[in-house]
Write the structure tokens for this entry.
Amino acid sequence: MKHSIFLSVLWVAFCTSFAFSQSQTSLDDLVAPETKAVVLGEGYTFCEGPAADSLGNIYFSDGTHDTIHFYPHGQAVQKFVTDSFDANGMMFNPRGELCVCEGAAFQVVAIHPRTKEKRILVDKIEGGRFNEPNDLTFDATGGFYFTDPNYKHRGQETVRKEDVYYVSNTGEVSRVSTVCKQPNGILLTPDDQFLYVADCADQKIYRYKVDGPGLLSDERLWIDLGAHPDGMTLDVHGNLYMGCGPAGVLIYDKEGKRIGVLSKDHGIPYASNCVFGGPNFSILYITAASRFLGIPTKTEGIKSRHFELVP
């Protein structure tokens, strides 16, 4: 009898442990059925680059108007700055600055969220300019990876192959990936172990193992999407959410298996990019061309890396 009880206890413990170790693989596990996105802002030319601060408030760009907008949770969208030239992908760095790919300005900058003072993080490679910095992701050291395609937002010429670069926390620049035809979204896992790179033109997601800051290995074609991926985000289970234009937000698990899609049926007719935010980081915010959307989920997203704000 005691032996039977002991085995029963072990089985319950095993099942409990197993249940908590499994990633969520059903779309209904992530977003309740019939849930619709809410329009939080509209009237933009083409919004992009959503980034969450430590409180879950969201910043997003409208590069055509050189504008970055700010959405404090539960309040109206307001303008943050109007002088960020061709602002696109954004993310907070460990110093608490909002870092912005200013595409047709050929640079990545950091903006202080209180003073709005701007400093250039990188604007040259091998003595020349970049094509059009598009998206970026920071590691724990303060270094960052960024993509450099050319969508010719302001008619500029392509001056080099469209590749992926790493900028160390001391400002050294290196080319780290050349596989993409047109790299776009880019994202590190929270443990800095893997890097995802979206090839918009070739409709593919590549994954790298990260051996150290700027050191990549084990290049793999991770997902052949059949859609054009743009910006990406992750939830706490390792599920990858990809804005894919008119195809909506495609969701794949950490093994590269498709979970589902958030699209027109969820009030999301278009998705250029997405990020989790809100008080519990459980709202998925989507930049949807002329609209800024939010949809509640049953999961939580990874949080910004930044610590204390620089003075």
In short: Confidence is low (pLDDT under 50) at residues 1-24. Residues 2-21 form the longest helix (20 residues). The first strand starts at residue 38 and ends at 52.
